[in-house]
Write a structure and sequence with these properties.
Number of helices: 9
Distance between the termini: 37 Å
Bound molecules: N-oxalylglycine, nickel (II) ion
Order of helices and strands: HEHEHHEEHHHEEEEEEHEEH
Structural class: alpha+beta
Largest sheet: 8 strands, mixed
Length: about 350
């Protein structure tokens, strides 16, 4: 049993965000300097039309260059014409919202603070131990290979496995297409990582951010890097902010119908030997409606030269010793010659 299971006030199932409290408890107040601006400048992030990858070689090479530039400049971009149809995206978001609508008792079947569990429902990381709580509820589950994990996903709502499974498979295909283009842009040959990706992991973070009575005081997710190669995010409404690495200010990610968000993660930073930067991002709240997002986190066993190799387990062990609100990155622990 976890040490923190006795800290009842914060147990999943009873958190302020799940109960819809009409005020924000002190534990959720982020430090003054870290409070979010809810209408910052919009990030001028590239919107990349992936359709061009499958046209003539000149078009492909132009798209490959655009992706390379975006990975360098922001570590972030948006994509359209990615091949996932609107129905699949809408149904995955609907499956997510229906899961979070279930009675607490049903969701609690998956409740765990053990970060090694392949399926788990939780609120803030290490509930009751983090200095600051975050206004989020999430379900995380492994997704690749689908046949191996799907049987452990929630049985309810009854359509969850089918609808979420379709999105997971297609999101993974988009990641593979993108990684091929990224490897090509790095001069490594498009298939450089394909077999490693087949052997790699896909983890879904299905996030729910209920309306927050005082969204200027709290965050849905604190600033963090993703410990992935790439992360692809589907969101029901805006709320994602990224740190612009050039002027070091928070910028909101503009909403583009049908677009998905792509984050460069720590592993791609290592693989590109620091050329591409893992993007710092956070989720902000609103007082009107629940926001959902589905992040497809893709991991491969890649190693760079300036960074030692690491496994997903290393990362989980790192998380278990960190207060993620403090913003230290996992990648910083992997740098050789620090
Ligand atoms: C994540 C993440 C952003 C969002 O799950 O790692 O950064 O908008 N999500 O929910
Ligand atoms: Ni993230």
């Amino acid at each position: 049993m976890d040490d923190n299971e006795s800290s009842s006030a914060w147990n999943t199932g009873q958190s302020a965000q799940e109960q819809g409290l009409e005020y924000v408890l002190d534990a959720y107040h982020v430090a003054l300097g870290d409070r979010p601006s809810l209408c910052p400048d919009k990030a001028d992030v590239p919107l990349i039309d992936l359709g061009g990858l499958w046209k003539d070689p000149a078009r492909r090479s132009a798209v490959v260059k655009d992706i390379a530039k975006a990975c360098c400049r922001f570590g972030f971009f948006q994509i359209v014409n990615h091949g996932i149809c609107q129905t699949v995206m809408d149904e995955a978001l609907h499956a997510a919202s229906s899961f979070f609508d279930l009675p607490t008792q049903e969701k609690m079947k998956y409740m765990s603070n053990d970060v090694h569990k392949p399926v788990r429902y939780a609120t803030s990381l290490k509930d009751g131990i983090d200095k600051t709580q975050f206004w989020r509820v999430f379900l995380k589950h492994y997704a690749h290979p689908l046949e191996r994990w799907m049987g452990q996903w929630p049985e309810n709502p009854p359509h969850y496995r089918e609808k979420m499974g379709k999105f997971c498979a297609q999101a993974r295909k988009v990641t593979v297409d993108l990684m091929e283009a990224i490897m090509e842009g790095l001069g490594l040959g498009p298939l450089y990582l394909t077999s490693k990706m087949e052997a790699g992991m896909q983890v879904m973070a299905v996030n729910c951010y209920p309306p927050c009575p005082n969204p200027e005081m709290a965050l849905g997710q604190p600033p963090h890097y993703d410990h992935t190669c790439l992360t692809i995010v589907l969101q029901s409404s805006p709320g994602l902010q990224i740190m612009d690495p050039v002027d070091c200010t928070w910028k909101s990610v503009p909403k583009i119908p049908g677009a998905l968000q792509v984050h460069v993660g720590d592993h791609l930073e290592a693989l590109s030997n620091g050329l591409y930067k893992s993007v710092v991002h956070r989720a902000v709240l609103n007082s009107e409606r629940t926001r959902f997002s589905i992040a497809s986190l893709e991991l491969v066993g890649a190693q760079g030269k300036k960074y030692r190799g690491s496994s997903f387990r290393d990362f989980l062990n790192f998380l278990a010793t960190q207060d993620i609100g403090e913003g230290r990155s996992f990648i910083s622990t992997l740098k050789i010659n620090q």
